[in-house]
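Researcher: Quick test of sequence recovery. Tokens follow.
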């Protein structure tokens, strides 16, 4: 078992995996870490679909063109889930408030699923496994993904997590430094200093992309991320949420 420090600070996104299966004891450890994730109200407003079926992984790959979906040994799909508590409430004759029609309700499910995914990432790293978070599963074709996964009302995909024995060991990407992430007692007091530090980080990312192993690019940080934002403007996530029973009003 890897140390907490190594698991957290040497994590990279792995997209190529060996064919060997993940030991069941490691999967159970990952399951246990997920189950012990802190959640809002202890409501546990999430569920996880563990995909080992290669044909299903191939179908999801065909939608996304994300190779890690078909090369991974296991694909965990983390979902916001209000279906479970709704089913039990109906059995017990308890009225269910329209919490899924609020932004807070949507946010809580996303937070719970995201925290659970991070528990899985750390647990997988501790086992010496590779992982890769795949947010595109949420946006590529939400209705088709919901159909493939048989998602009922009250459940929607937040993110996927590819897991497997790593075939590659990518360079660690540079992250923002302390001065642009952590502020004391209030948000950054000096905007000019903040922007200067962000510009330095932008240059650092450009250098990393130009010199990294496994293929180089001319991407910076700022422009590259804004391109993602522009692409994401076309997503119809609100329509998808409504189809899954989340009619957000406030």
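Model:
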């Amino acid at each position: 078992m890897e140390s907490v420090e190594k698991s957290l600070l040497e994590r990279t996104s792995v997209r190529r995996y060996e064919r060997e299966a993940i030991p069941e004891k490691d999967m159970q450890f990952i399951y246990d870490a997920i189950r012990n994730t802190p959640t809002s109200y202890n409501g546990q407003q999430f569920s996880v679909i563990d995909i080992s079926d290669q044909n299903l992984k191939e179908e999801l790959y065909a939608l996304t063109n994300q190779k890690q979906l078909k090369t991974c040994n296991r694909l965990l799909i983390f979902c916001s889930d209000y279906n479970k508590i709704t089913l039990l409430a109906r059995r017990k004759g308890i009225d269910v408030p329209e919490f899924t029609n609020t932004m807070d309700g949507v946010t809580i499910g996303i937070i719970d699923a995201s925290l659970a995914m991070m528990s899985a990432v750390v647990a997988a790293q501790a086992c010496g496994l590779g992982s890769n978070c795949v947010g595109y599963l949420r946006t590529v074709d939400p209705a088709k993904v919901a159909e493939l996964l048989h998602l009922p009302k009250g459940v929607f995909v937040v993110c996927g997590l590819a897991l497997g024995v790593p075939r590659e060991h990518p360079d660690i990407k540079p992250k923002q430094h302390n001065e642009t992430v952590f502020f004391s007692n209030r948000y950054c007091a000096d905007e000019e200093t903040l922007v200067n530090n962000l510009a330095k980080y932008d240059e650092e990312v450009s250098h990393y992309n130009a010199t990294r192993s496994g293929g180089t690019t001319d991407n910076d940080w700022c422009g590259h991320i804004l391109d993602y934002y522009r692409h994401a403007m076309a997503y119809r996530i609100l329509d998808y949420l409504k189809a899954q029973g989340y009619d957000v009003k406030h």
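The two ends are 45 Å apart (CA to CA).
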